[in-house]
Amino acid sequence: MTPKDMMVADANAEAMGIPRTSLMENAGRGLSQVISQHKEPCKVTIYAGNGGNGGDGFVAARYLLNMGFEVEVYLLSDPALIKSREASLNWEVLQSINKGTSPLKVEVLKDSAYLHPTSAEVVVDALLGTGVRGNLREPVSTAVDVINQARGLKVAVDMPTGVDPGSGMVDDKAVRADITVTFHKVKVGLNIASVEYVGSIEVCDIGIPLEAELFTGPGDLLRRGRRDEKSHKGQNGKVLVIGGSKEYSGAPALAALAALGGGVDISVVACPQELSPIIRSYSPDLIVHSLSNEFLNPKDTEELIKLSEKFDAVVLGCGIGMEEETALAVNDLVVEIGKPMVIDADALKMLGPGVIPRRIHDTVITPHAGEFYEFSGRTPPQDLQDKMEMVKEVALESESTVLLKGAVDIIAHTDRIKLNRTGNPGMSVGGTGDCLAGLTGALLAQGHGGFEAAFLAAYINGMAGDLAAEEYGYNFSATDLLSYIPRIF
Ligand SMILES: NC(=O)C1=CN([C@@H]2O[C@H](COP(=O)(O)OP(=O)(O)OC[C@H]3O[C@@H](n4cnc5c(N)ncnc54)[C@H](O)[C@@H]3O)[C@@H](O)[C@H]2O)[C@H](O)CC1
Ligand SMILES: [K+]
Question: Which keywords, in A-to-Z order, does the entry hold (predicted)?
Fold first, then answer.
């Protein structure tokens, strides 16, 4: 997993009720167990940084003492600069252990000049883990040299300090560990980095449940990038919504407004001519592009393909209707539009098999069970596991991300799968699916890949529905839901 995946899993676990102190406790205890499996009680030196990695070291020190080890802990930072509450708490615990009765030495080394070689039989690198940024600064940098010069067994906590947890690259120098004890899952950088740094890898379970990764949670919002402080118009995404028909003028408008709630700078509805004054009248925030006729048809395709070039993502299908000519246009547009695309509602029923695989850009399809059947010819089974398998198969066959909407949304792409359980029975009201499609388009336009855009949109849309339900019970409309979307961000 990437460092970001780890941050998300951690935050989702916390939202599930598992305190960060428990995760750190499990990490430190796991680390001490690995050490005790390799060495009889002896002298251990722990070099600790001011982040969570150092915190794991503080916890391990406590367990090692209980096992009969002699422990010295060097904190390479001002204790006032310890980053997290859980690391601070564990630092305080070390202060309260009686140095007279326990073979423990704790020292603060703010300056590399005070670092000396260690003769300990085990040397622990608890300097930096997944929170490392940029080149190693002092005194951490010198501490890496001291660890590498030591003769004892070198144990790295989570990552050898100096190895980038995402890329596995070593810029200047890194700890050359004999063993790396990593938590929950192997970080991608460990798999890429040379074995001379990583040594042998031991994965330690710290009690993060499967659900913290399988289900979306508030931690997933950490996947969003920061908005550029000097943003100019258009930089945060432009979405084109193609939809609308005689019966359905609200659907494309809801999708376009949801895209604005999702943070894009520009959201345009392209709709049949006779609808455009109606859609314009809904909101001054919407830009409306008139097409030729009373329904989408092949006469419009060339114009739409050209228009789409100005956008970052396209949402196709909301309220588009079921005219035969519309189906012809939809089949062309899916293949010819060279942008990430969300395909929703009626458009899904019109696609011939194998049309989507001819696209080169990310595609997300957002069917409910009925549309899923019309698109794939398969009825989603009741059993969740079986349903997950089926969604995965359809995602593979259609070379797209499939977001099957339901009480539990299932989102699949290649071998990846996510479940989303935000939302409530009030969301069976018409239009909430259009909001979801528009939101997904917004996230695609902002650079998220199809899979991530889809599961984030499902989470956010459901959360917005849950806020609406808090206010109105289940008697809310899609317009009510819309107004809550920005709050979730
Ligand atoms: N993710 C989990 O579920 C758990 C993680 N644990 C451990 O915590 C670390 C991640 O903690 P974090 O505080 O985010 O990061 P670091 O410990 O790596 O420290 C960041 C800290 O270090 C300083 N710093 C950053 N870059 C540099 C640099 N180039 N030179 C010098 N100093 C640097 C800066 O002050 C940062 O704030 C994870 O790896 C696990 O070991 C848990 O305890 C268990 C749960
Ligand atoms: K480390």
Answer: ATP-binding, Isomerase, Lyase, Metal-binding, Multifunctional enzyme, NAD, NADP, Nucleotide-binding, Potassium
Q: According to the annotation, is 55 in a ligand binding site?
A: yes
State the closest ligand 1 atom to the C-alpha of 7, by its place in the atom list counted from 1.
1
Query: Which residue's C-alpha comes closest to atom 15 of ligand 1?
Result: 131
CA angle 9, 391, 393 (to 5 degrees): 110
Atom of ligand 1 nearest to the CA of 54: 17
Query: Annotated binding residue at 51?
Result: no
Three-class SS state of 46: strand
- Evaluate: CB of 181 within 6 angstroms of ligand 1: no
Task: Choose which CATH entry (3.40.1190.20, 3.40.190.150, 3.40.190.10, 3.40.50.140) describes domain 225-488.
Answer: 3.40.1190.20
- For residue 144, the CA-to-ligand 2 centroid distance in Å is 10
Nearest CA to ligand 1 atom 6: 52
Residue 1 burial (10 A CB sphere; 0-12, 13-18, 19+): middle
Q: Which tokens sit at 275?
A: 């609808």
ipTM above 0.90, yes or no: yes
Smallest-distance ligand from the CA of 177: 2
Give residue limits of the domains in the chain. Answer: 3-214, 225-488
Two tokens, residue 431: 């239009």
User: Which is nearest to 42 in space by CA: 107, 109, 119, 134?
Assistant: 119
19 Cβ neighbours under 8 A, 6+ residues apart: 86
- Ligand 1, atom 21, lies closest to the CA of 51
Question: What pTM did the predictor assign?
Answer: 0.92
Distance 35 CA to ligand 2 centre (A): 15
Alpha helices, H only, 324-449: 324-336, 346-350, 369-376, 384-397, 432-445
pLDDT digit string, tens, across residues 297-309 = 999 999 999 999 9
Q: Which of 439, 433, 447 is nearest to 404 (CA)?
A: 433
